[in-house]
């Protein structure tokens, strides 16, 4: 299969499937079905089977999916069968929350460097890391070969941070700042926007 | 149209369309097309037209969408042509970040009450609100008729907070705690999970 033939929206559902499989595994389950996954996720079982069929044949008609096997396959497809080093830019409230977030471990990511431009924060410890000066962001990211970054700065500083990250080799940015970033082709940006999730729910109220 | 006939996955895309329209409007644009929206969002123009067709006829063949009109219609459909009062539970790093988040204003939501169970935090000010004791969560939510809540507590406390919220009339919960909540039918939960976004990008690295 070629990456370019897979719709991005399908790729976007794979982590959701993986998370559901993780939950099932944590419950001690070994086998599941597209029907059960679909019920849990609010996605049709046909959609799930179709999505997975882009990548191979993971279940048997009538016996469902082996959870451990499908987890491994999804981890491989998503390239999180390795650990990605992550740079965190912004050591404010949100940066602190992210540095202490327990959800990265075991899911493919670890924060290895934290940056801020506030002299009062630079040199302080945060979650076993020393907060570094934004001035050294580019050189550190380059030297450590970091390709994934979290932007947790105010909106006003986010684009210039993104520019430095991109120029230093970062290819994937998760942006919490409430602005749209401009990045060159080949660099991916995802946005964390709580309002999008809230609006999805008020539809039903 | 009946709410039950619209797939949830379609509903989930409407806030994304609305955000893109907001960006276009901020750029001073008045007209757009499903093609342009699709290019910006990585969604096919056919999908966008099909999604919107569930709710009515918003564009004219050959002339595209009037951005102001389509924004209004999406706001009406998503029921954010009103302001929803929101309770924030958890006044730690993440709670502080959310209380100060500039993205709620003008998009249908305002945080009107903040709660924590830490005696050192209760009574302190946070973004012009006084942090209240979790003990009064149920009574305040009930008295103020709050139906939307953000959970920004540690994982260990999130389910009991959700139970209180649900028993007090909350129907929509945005959960930042890294656990799956159990809620009764008729209550919606969405999750903020940065790892899902990161995994979606590592696929391409």
Largest sheet of chain A: 7 strands, mixed
Give the largest chain-chain interface (CB within 8 Å): A-B, 61 and 61 residues
Silhouette of chain A: elongated
CATH superfamily of the largest domain in chain A: NAD(P)-binding Rossmann-like Domain
Q: How many domain units of chain A?
A: 2
Q: Report strand % of chain A.
A: 15-25%
The value of Rg of chain A in angstroms is 19 Å
The main sheet of chain A orders its strands as 6-7-5-4-8-9-10
Distance between the termini of chain A: 42 Å
What does the average pLDDT of chain A come to? 93
- The DSSP helix count of chain A reads 8
Point out poorly predicted stretches of chain A. Answer: none
CATH architecture classification name of the largest domain in chain A:
3-Layer(aba) Sandwich
CATH topology annotation of the largest domain in chain A: Rossmann fold
Helix percentage of chain A:
40-55%
Number of strands of chain A: 10
**Helices and strands of chain A: which structural class?**
alpha/beta
